Every structure is written in C-alpha cells, then in structure tokens.
Amino acid sequence: MITTVTLNPAEDKTFTAARLILGQVNRIDSVKNIAGGKGINVTKVLRQYGYPVRALGFLGGYTGKFIEDYVKSIGAECLFTYVDGETRVNINILSQDGYVTELLEPGPDIREKELDAFFEDFNKGIADSDLVILSGSAPEHVPAAVYYDLILQAKNKGKKVILDSSGIYLKESINACPYMVKPNIRELEVLSGRRIKRMEDAIGAALQIGGRGINHVMVSMGAKGLLYINDREIMYAKAPEVKAVNTVGCGDSVVAAFAVAEKQGMGNEELLKFCVGVSAANATTLESAVIPMDKTEELIEQVKIIRY
C-alpha cells in the first residue's frame, strides 16, 4: 500500500482558448473539470500503474465530494478528513500561443480540531503502507511545520517518506530528512542558501541537501530534465523534446514514477529514465496525470543520462 497526502486538494478547471488578454473579455473554447492537487495527481498516476493507494487530506463541501467520488472511481481508498470549509477550485488556462496561466485559490481555513482529526486519520492511514507521499501546499492556519511532524511520525513507524512541497512548508520540514525530496532550482537555492547558475552549482547545492541525511534528491529542471543525487551517484537526465500540451502535473508524475520504481526495485539509472519519461509523457496530454503508456515507453528510450 502507498499512502498519498494532499492537504490542499482542488478541483482543477482547465480552459482552452486561442489566447488570454488581460482586461478584456476572453472566449473559452473548451472546459474540463478534473480532481486535482499534487497528491491527487500522484494517486492518479499510481493507479494507472496498478498500485494500491490510500488517499488522505482535507476535503470540504460539494467540491470535496466531487474529488472523493473521483478518487474512489479510479480504485483508490479514501481516508479524507472532512472540514467545514469548501475545498478550493483552481483554474488553468491553456492558450494556443503556448502560455499556461494558473489561478490558485488558497483553500479552506482549518480549525485546530480538524487538524487534530487529520493527524489521527494519518496515523491510521499509514499503518499498512511502506511508502508515504506528502505533496503540495497546505490550507490556511495549518502550521508551517506540519510536514516535519508527519515525516517524523511516519519514520517512527518505519515508513519511507517522499516529500514534494515548496515555500515555508518545504523549508520547515527538510530537517526531518525524508527518504526523497524533489525541489526545483529556485527551491534548491532557498534550501541551500546558494545562487545556482550552472550545473556545478546545482550539484553542490543538492549534495548539501542530501548531506543532511536524505537518501535521494531529485532536482526538477523543467523541460531540461532531472538532476539526481544519492550518497554514491550524481546523474543528470536530459529530457526528450515533446510538444507540450499541458505541463500541469509533470512534477507529480516524477514523484509517482519514483514510487513505482522504488516498488519495482529499479536501478538508479533505470529509475531516473523512468521518472523523466513519465513526466515528459504527461506533458503531451490535456488532462494532468493521465499517462499515455505507449508514449512513455518511447520517451524513456530517448532520455540521455550524464554521470558526474
């Protein structure tokens, strides 16, 4: 069993349009409503690869019910903590000029009793899991150290924890030393206190983070690929070129792919190629975290590995 945690899930409304012009009326060509949030996206990918998943997080109102119904429909277990507020709605606008515009709501206010209830659900939800994946931001009034506490709670029960967050939530939790962390370049700069201009700078910063006791550091470099570091190897995977339709969920696809690779016992080079291939394939589809398997296999073969 794999447990995913999405503290701030959302209904993603994806619009397509010829272009988006600020300050004017914009006509939308199509709209698609999708259950989203980083951990929900991870859950979607893991279910496509056939792994049992239990999804946790905060849900509220009609939007929350929409998300839970979807998660159940793909065969994942649900142990969501319901709150009085309404789960947020995010808007992604994909324009034909290649720009992606995202409008992200903050999410509901979480009361202390609701946070306490979530920690109880978390304790139950990880009992039979060997992997725990913590993804994304958190709603209002959730302490910045929430992931720090969750990581320690899971590690004390012998679980491997994957962390994919940002901002204060990442900064406050990194010293709990998850099994894997996936910062982007900007986040790596903040964590390491270094300015990153070249690959050598990124490697040095990633080594610094890994030196705290983190087994795997995967640095997201967008369309350029991934930098991967553990205590024995340094590798860069150059991503194949694809015609990107929607890049939302590419990072979440990396996280899910890492979990699949971990479950399958892949070697590190195979793991890295798999993560980049799945992420690149995600970018070729309109709906986030829907992976075209044939395309994935083709892209994995095109990933180039450079060792340092």
Automatic annotation (TrEMBL):
The record ties this protein, via CDD domains, to:
FruK_PfkB_like (cd01164)
User: Which pathway?
Assistant: Carbohydrate metabolism; D-tagatose 6-phosphate degradation; D-glyceraldehyde 3-phosphate and glycerone phosphate from D-tagatose 6-phosphate: step 1/2
Its EC top class is transferase
Carbohydrate kinase PfkB domain: from which residue to which, for each copy?
Answer: 22-286
Record's keyword annotation contains Transferase: yes
Task: Set out the biological process GO terms recorded for this chain's protein.
Answer: carbohydrate catabolic process; lactose metabolic process; small molecule metabolic process
Q: Which GO terms describe its molecular function?
A: 1-phosphofructokinase activity; ATP binding; tagatose-6-phosphate kinase activity
Name of one Pfam family that matches:
PfkB
Catalytic activities: beta-D-fructose 1-phosphate + ATP = beta-D-fructose 1,6-bisphosphate + ADP + H(+); D-tagatofuranose 6-phosphate + ATP = D-tagatofuranose 1,6-bisphosphate + ADP + H(+)
Which keywords does this chain's UniProt record carry?
A: ATP-binding, Kinase, Lactose metabolism, Nucleotide-binding, Transferase
Q: Name one GO cellular component term.
A: cytosol
Per its database record, what is this protein's job?
A: Catalyzes the ATP-dependent phosphorylation of fructose-l-phosphate to fructose-l,6-bisphosphate.
Q: What is this protein called?
A: Tagatose-6-phosphate kinase
Native organism: Parablautia intestinalis
